[in-house]
Every structure is written in structure tokens, then in C-alpha cells.
Amino acid sequence: MTLTTKLPMKTWFGLAAGLGLALSLAGQAGATDLTFYYPVAVGGPVTKVIDGMAADFEKANPDIHIKPVYAGSYQDTIAKTLTALKGGDAPQVAVILSTDMFTLIDEDAIVPFDSLAKTADDKAWLKGFYPGFMENSQTGGKTWGVPFQRSTVVMFWNKELFKEAGLDPEKPPQTWAELVSMGKKLTRRDAAGNVTSWGIQVPSSGFPYWLFQCFTTQNDVKLMNSAGNQTYFDKPAVVEALQYWVDLSRKDKIHPPGIVEWGTTPKDFFEKKAAMIWTTTGNLTNIRKNAKFEFGTAMLPAGKRRGSPTGGGNFYVFKSGSAEQQAAAFKFAKWMTEPKRAAEWAIATGYVAVSPAAWQTKEMKDYVAEFPAPLVARDQLEHAVAELSTHENQRVTKALNDGLQAALTGAKSPKQAMEDAQREADRILKAYR
Question: How far is C-alpha 91 from the geometric centre of its chain's CA atoms?
Fold first, then answer.
């Protein structure tokens, strides 16, 4: 006689329900849920791309569930992350500015990737990124972030406006002096003397310190040390770099006066309100889709040297996650940055593919054969420096940003603005020396 005939029906239903509940709990226990904070602060619609990549990862890893949370700008994302940490509801993985590395370390928020890299393949992957991008990813002998959407600042120029100004449309300015001389020919005014198109436009809202670091790098001076506890804002060469930026509008009259908006700069380029702009290479796909004229992409012109800071976001894995979540977050970051997907992401957005191996994929080779512009940002890595990053990075960059905007609006001289910014940075960083 079978077991079922010996048990009352009520008992049988109870056992069946219990078994179902146990199987359900076992299924839930087998899945690892990850909350993924992602900053939407780039040109073009990237949320669909991120959603698609997350879905593809889940298909390949059915035991891991990714929940992307679009957290706003980079500033919004770090603020929301720190708030969530204090509230006990932190994400397990996030893309946050590479420059926020010191802040996240000081908050004891993240785990180094080295501790999560278990296999030889993991360790090889970790060593495969461009060294220029790792300068804002490593400190104290540990790797705290891995590059994902990284960039340099590049120059876009309108070839049609160059032709109309009598300039060779295939030759952008190579030096600071050429930028001024060409900018004067490209700045157009109506009969009343009002500017209808500026020669050059460099944004000074959003990330003014980042664009300013282009000028300081080109003037062969650094803004901070590698330990993140000392800044050099008041050095004569830094003041000279700011004076050059200020002079573009006030003396040379080839650049819009006052504060130039980060978000509208690509649009001004589309509308021919600016013949040349400096912006992130992350806007490349956006500009390619929207510019109704032939344009060029070039390295930034040289002062004493060429140069741009690197920029953009890294993947970080958070300490608040369980061991399983940290391992899953590592797997996700590795999957998202492997050569084929790094190439696909670069093609979709315009960001720099973060490893030499990504440039050797068929997808990337085919892409640059037809559209070579992305090579500019990659090649500029040879001249790139680490983006400004310090302890208390939000406060230190605010001190510099306030000084830059005071100089650009004429509220302070470049010298006074930089001395004031350095004084504030010294006050903030004193505890870290």
C-alpha cells in the first residue's frame, strides 16, 4: 500500500504546500539580486543600451538579477549613493565618477577588485585596461574601480564653417596661437555687430574643473598630487592657463562671455552657433547623429604640450553587499567591460573603449574603418593625465569650480580666483596630510 493512501487528505495537502514553499524559497535563495546605480549624464539615449546589456547579462547568468537604477547626473549619483549607504540601502554595484574613488574609500564603502579576482583569467582581465584610465582607479597598491565609460576631452569642428571662413576644412588648430587666429576668422557677426557664431566654445558649467584641466595640462602643470591630499591651484602656470581661457572671450572675443552651459554646447554646435567646441568624446555618437554638416574630431591644441585629463565613470563594488552579491557584482563588471562589449558600448555611445583588446575586435575594426573619429580620443591617451581627484573631492572641486566661474564672469582676476580656491582646498585637505 502506498504512503498516500495512509495519510489523510488534509495532511497530504499540507505536505504538498510545504514542499512548494520550500522549492520556492530554494529558488529565491539561488538567485542573487543586484541593484545597479547608473548615472544618466551623457549625450544621447543610453538607458536603452544599459537595459539591453543588463538583460543580456541575465540571460547568460540566470542566477543573477540586475536592477538598473538611473540616478541622474554624476553628482546626483554619488550623493544618492552616500545617502543610501547611511540609510542601509546601498547599491551593490554602481558606475560613479572615477574621481570619487577617494571619497568612496574614505566612506569605507567599496571593496578593491583585487580581493574579488580569484582566477588567473580574472587577474588578466584586471591588468588589461589602458594605464591612463587606471590612474584614477588605483591607489595604495589596490584597484578600487574599473574603467567603463571613460573619455578624454576632444575638439569638434564644423568643416562647412571653416570653408566659409577661408580656412582649410581638414586642418583644425594645432596650437593655442592657431586656436586664437582661426577663432577670429570663424567668429561671425551681423550688421549690428552681434555675434551669430562663435569661433570656439568651451563649457564652464557642470564640469568646469575638467575642461580647465585641459588648459593646465597643455600649460604643463598638474592640479594635484597622486595621494589626493595636495592641490596646486595657485601655481603661476595654473593662473596662466586660466588667463588664456578668460582672454578667449574678453581679449580675443572669439568665445562666449560668462558661463557656457555644458548641456547645450553640443546643441550650439548642431545649430552652427559655435564653429569649434571642446566636449567629452562621450558626445561623439550624439554629434554624429545630429550634426547636419560635415564635422571633424581632433586632439586638443597644444600650449607647451598637448593634453587632456581622462574622465568618466568606473564600476565600483560595495562592501555592504553579501559575499555572494560582491562576487556577482564583480562578474557583472567584468562581463560589461570584456573586449567585445567594451567595443559595442564605445560604438553605441562614443566613449573610449577601455582596453587595447577592445580595439582589436572585429566590431571595432569595422567601425573605425568606416568612421575613424573614435581613434582621436584613444590616441590622445598618450598625452592624457589623471583627472582632478582628492579626498573630499566634491568640496575641493567646488572650491576650484567657484574660482573658475568667478574669473570667467569677471568677478575676480584669475590670480585672485586661484589663490582663493587654493586657500579653501588647503583648509579642506589639511586633515589628510
Answer: 19
